[in-house]
């Protein structure tokens, strides 16, 4: 056996292998795991050039793999105004929003005409209702372009300058699959836009540059991630990551999903499935509906609370119709492209299932593991369809904590308690993952793990005790199951001989601490391919 380059000793090594075994030490050679065993066994392998890390009882888990987030979309936000309400942030009032926007303007030395962004905006949880309008924004920032991005990342409130850029007026009709909210009693836009009325704004926002991308990659590494997703990348975002990784590999891998309007361009360019410097164009991303907290998720049973603008008998928004979904899925399958589809509501899930069946009936072949992203307000029969059709859902249990009380109001107890049914998915033999959707929610994987175990809202309500999972199952949803999502389960995602030497070193063991202590666990070191990419 070749002398190891690196050994980790005196640790609790949670391997996440099929047997659920633990060990004390690991040996690494040329970026791969070459031995797993006791400290004495592994120490005996050390040679003159071996680096020995004595972890003094800390816990080693596989490096976290991100099943769904938005690394390039999130990167520009960081220097702007974070507007999260408690428990994530401290925004409580409209006055707080305006103050933080002003601070961002001053911090970034914004000039008239420049962008000032707020992100994480969630008026439903603000003490004063938080209803910001274009008029309110213009009272302080009329000379700038201002956008408050809703926490769902599916809507925003913008000021008059941005409304003019978008050419939204009283005469502008709502686009199919979108909503331009009006000033009550008039047809004048209030500044609030949703879904297909929001997406044109997204492509006008200042894009990330290489410096911001690298800073964002370092932030993922700080939380123990060795791979991040870019979950709706236009060709400009794909090019940014590809060129950055080619010039100098990023500290983590990045998996880009080409946003569906650019799918044909990506196919023509021959980039899907290619990998350069840790950047892989993995598949395509569709958006079929909105968000449950924004009341735009598409559901078969109407919302208890009506729509976001007071609509009655409200079922949410279908962002694209069935015919377009069928066309995109068939195009992807015919070119061997893995499909990732944003489906929060059960009507959207039905739409994806129908599109898959239509594509197969038309003679197209799925490359396997179609990913319904979010899978929140869904029905039990749809999990059976996932099993039948080789779907691999990515779920979103942090919603039970941050938005659980809102979901109870919007959907009633039965549907709210079934949100992101991780337990049922596992029991049916699926390998679900669990994601942050950053920048929608914090990327901290220990918080994700904790929410899957406790499923408790900020108001103290357990949303579906029968959907709780064990800490080990929750860890699998952030490691080996994500490797499965990416068709990489044979090369990464668990601590086994022959796999990539990717580790997150934690200051406590999430499998043995009290459940509520899981969210307080810190990442003290991240190792990718045998090399430390973060150290606290």
UniProtKB/TrEMBL annotation:
GO terms for molecular function: hydrolase activity, acting on carbon-nitrogen (but not peptide) bonds. Residues 51-534 form the Amidohydrolase domain. InterPro entries: Amidohydro_3, Metal-dep_hydrolase_composite, Metal_Hydrolase, YtcJ-like. This is Amidohydrolase 3 domain-containing protein. It comes from Sediminihabitans luteus.
